[in-house]
């Protein structure tokens, strides 16, 4: 569209879909299930963690009961249950420590793969259209994984739990980088510009490699996204306690920012003729991260069901139209309790 009509039409198409999405979001408001607002837990979370660090990493020191026994050195606006939830949320966050390495590999699809396609023979295809293979592959494979692959593995005695899935996601990310290194080597081995694509003469001709050769790299990235990214989002939501779901989810998403920072650090070497080594290095780093991730967290597979069972304990969802009624009922009960207390004092 941008090639034949102009960028304005491409942006207009995106705007149209955003308007459609916002319209559906607003129109469906009455069907949503929401929780009444309870305030932010982030300040309390960091205060409790600071108390734990001040006491040698002992989170028990942040419990109000612990403080009461020792003269209440720190002022706490939470209860003991909150500390239990915080500890569980922190345990879930540990799983995300290796994700920045994965996000560096994943982000190559959004920048260096596009540049790589620009040095190949496009045959009228824009060099940035190849990345659409990734979402199309995901749309096609997620139902197959969810309905066929995972149930099929469970039937033959392979549960394929989240930690295993994330590990394999890292492995497929490494495979994508390995294949990208092979494609880059093929480009450097092809005329007319060899290891200086588009720069050997004033004609700026691409090397004689068809852009379709890139396709498997995008497929590998898509499979890794299903196994690592989608499973990571699932893990962040299901393992976090009810009061900390958004907090733990934000910690998971923060890892992509760290990955972007690492990508910026790699930018100086992301140029010809060193791209083969950059892709190879990312492949090695990602496969090492996969091995370390498995060694550090494979024991969590054994506690998967028990952790999920704790997830929604005591949690009750409230519809939008129930919030005002619930609040009014609470105020009524509170007023009656105050009246009863005053009568008893008289």
In short:
By secondary structure, the protein is an all-alpha fold. The protein has helices spanning 7-27, 42-54, 64-69, 80-94, 99-107, 112-118, 133-155, 162-188, 215-239, 245-266, 275-297, 304-311, 320-345; strands spanning 33-34, 318-319.
Characterize the structure shown:
The protein is mostly helical and 346 residues long. Helix content is 65%, strand content 1%. The chain is elongated, with a radius of gyration of 26 Å. It has helices at residues 7-27, 42-54, 64-69, 80-94, 99-107, 112-118, 133-155, 162-188, 215-239, 245-266, 275-297, 304-311, 320-345; strands at residues 33-34, 318-319. Mean pLDDT is 84; it is low at 314-346.
Q: What order do the strands of the largest sheet run in, or round the barrel if closed?
A: 1-2
Radius of gyration, Cα only, in angstroms?
A: 26 Å
- Strand content range: under 5%
The biggest sheet amounts to: 2 strands, antiparallel
Q: Low-confidence spans: pLDDT under 50, at least 5 residues?
A: 314-346
**How much helix, percentage-wise, in residues?**
55-70%
CA-to-CA gap between the ends? Answer: 81 Å
Structural class: mainly alpha
The ordered string of helix (H) and strand (E) elements is: HEHHHHHHHHHHHEH
| Structural shape | elongated
Mean pLDDT: 84
Secondary structure tally, helices:
13
Strand-helix topology:
Elements: H1 7-27, E1 33-34, H2 42-54, H3 64-69, H4 80-94, H5 99-107, H6 112-118, H7 133-155, H8 162-188, H9 215-239, H10 245-266, H11 275-297, H12 304-311, E2 318-319, H13 320-345
């Amino acid at each position: 569209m941008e090639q034949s009509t102009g960028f304005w039409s491409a942006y207009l198409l995106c705007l149209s879909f955003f308007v459609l999405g916002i319209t559906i979001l607003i129109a469906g408001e009455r069907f949503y299930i929401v929780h009444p607002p309870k305030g932010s837990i982030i300040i309390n979370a960091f205060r409790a963690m600071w108390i734990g660090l001040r006491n040698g990493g002992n989170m028990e020191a942040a419990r109000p009961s612990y403080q009461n026994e020792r003269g209440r050195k720190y002022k706490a606006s939470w209860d003991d249950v909150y500390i239990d939830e915080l500890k569980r949320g922190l345990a879930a966050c540990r799983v995300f420590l290796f994700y920045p390495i994965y996000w560096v590999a994943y982000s190559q699809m959004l920048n260096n793969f596009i540049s790589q396609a620009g040095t190949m023979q496009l045959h009228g295809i824009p060099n940035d259209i190849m990345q659409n293979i990734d979402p199309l592959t995901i749309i096609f494979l997620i139902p197959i994984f969810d309905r066929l692959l995972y149930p099929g593995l469970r039937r033959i005695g392979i549960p394929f739990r989240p930690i295993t899935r994330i590990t394999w996601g890292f492995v497929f990310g490494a495979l994508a980088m390995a294949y990208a290194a092979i494609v880059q080597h093929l480009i450097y081995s092809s005329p007319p510009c060899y290891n200086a694509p588009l720069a050997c003469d004033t004609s700026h001709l691409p090397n004689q490699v068809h852009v379709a050769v890139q396709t498997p790299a995008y497929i590998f990235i898509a499979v890794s996204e299903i196994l690592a990214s989608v499973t990571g989002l699932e893990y962040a939501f299901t393992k976090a306690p009810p009061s900390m779901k958004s907090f733990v989810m934000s910690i998971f998403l923060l890892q992509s920012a760290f990955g972007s920072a690492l990508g910026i650090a790699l930018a100086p070497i992301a140029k010809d003729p060193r791209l083969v080594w950059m892709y190879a290095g990312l492949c090695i780093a990602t496969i090492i991260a996969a091995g370390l991730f498995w060694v550090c967290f494979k024991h969590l597979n054994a506690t998967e069901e028990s952790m999920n069972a704790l997830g929604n304990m005591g949690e009750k969802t409230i519809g939008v139209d129930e919030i005002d009624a619930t609040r009014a009922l609470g105020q009524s009960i509170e007023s009656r309790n105050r009246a009863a207390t005053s009568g008893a004092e008289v």
